[in-house]
Amino acid sequence: MWAYFIEIFYAGAHFHLGEIYQKQGRLDEAKFEFEKCLKMNPSHRKAKEMVGNNLQEKPIESKIC
Fold this sequence. Notes:
This protein is mostly helical and 65 residues long. Helix content is 68%, strand content 0%.
């Protein structure tokens, strides 16, 4: 049972790493991480969307205080 929760946790980590790579314009690496997320958790909705959208670069948002 613990193995299931660990896989779900790591799937989320791969998803977030993919988001970081996407924002940096490292699209091949982002796609790899999203696909790795889906291998661990095939029902991860956001990862499915990212892979299905053919990954477009998202600019890094900067906040000015």
